[in-house]
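## Example pair
The file below holds two records. Each record gives the amino-acid sequence first, followed by its structure token line.
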Amino acid sequence: MSTESKYGWNDAMELGLLAKMKSDLKVAMLAKDEAVKGAIRIVMSEFPTKLTIPITLESGKKSSRPKKEEEITDDDVVGIIQGLVKSEKQTLELKKEATSEYLQILECYLPKMASEEEILAWTRANVDLSQFKSAMQAMGPIMKHFGKKADGNVVKKVLAGLAG
């Protein structure tokens, strides 16, 4: 699949994730690349329901409104893609399949995940485990630093290794 060369995003690009996806959608439409077009449209269809801002109406009632395009951050979009990836992996597991074109397309828009070594090095340099009752309580600051680039399970493994 030539998706890796034409499509995809990484946080080193000057273009934001949403802008890159919109640009890739245009390219996919012109190239009649149905798989990429479909995958990007699925991601964007999640925005109105998943990306909302709480508001209070004049009556005092609590409500929410969809985020405007300029309010959508890369982390917002990454969160949606991660949810779709998780869902697709569960579906593939049930079908007893390893991967799908849809999954590969989604994954090329996710930032490169922090490796176990990177998480371990940052944790050793920046987190004093003696401040916590248990090493697992240090997950908060680590996850805050790495954001969506760290897998919680990898962080747990690193902390278990440091504690043990």
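Second record, same layout:
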Amino acid sequence: MIPAIMFYVFAALAVAGGVMVISARNPVHSVLFLIMVFFNAAGLFLLLGAEFLAMVLVIVYVGAVAVLFLFVVMMLDINFLKFREGFLQYLPIGALVGLVLLVELVMVFGSWAFAPEIAAGLAAPTPDAQTMNNTEALGRVLYTQYLYLFQAAGVILLVAMIGTILLTLRQRPGVRKQVVADQLARSAKDTLEVRKIPSGGGI
């Protein structure tokens, strides 16, 4: 009875927090509601017995990602009112993207409903909890059955990181930049000068 009550409490708070993330007018409040969603999702993972995923969710997402979002939003001087001015202009495109995502979700859940053997074929067998903990089981499934997808996700994140760096790179005149190749190509004759100073002849 108690786990069922905790499940509904965590689930309700997570859904409410998700709604507040997209409906809050202040971006700082949105990030705080996102942190609340992460904590409630970690509670759901604990109820499932996946304590490793719960700790990863709290440490990585709450301790790093969400806090980074919060600092970036607070430090950047962004005029969010200016962003909202073109809301009606991009509304048809946003509605089209949302419609495509909705159709894809209906197709996915519909395939599971009409062909339940698909979900059974994708699900990995659950290991015995007495012989293997969930961290080891997750590692085996992630690095064996889903190894190529895991590597593909890493490549996508790398491409996103490079794209972010290129978008934020600004060319400013008058700023001297470090060229590592030129520094490594220097010789001792170009950078050092040995002088013999007589005793008592220094400055």
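Notes on the second record: The chain is about 70% helix and 0% strand. Residues 51-75 form the longest helix (25 residues).
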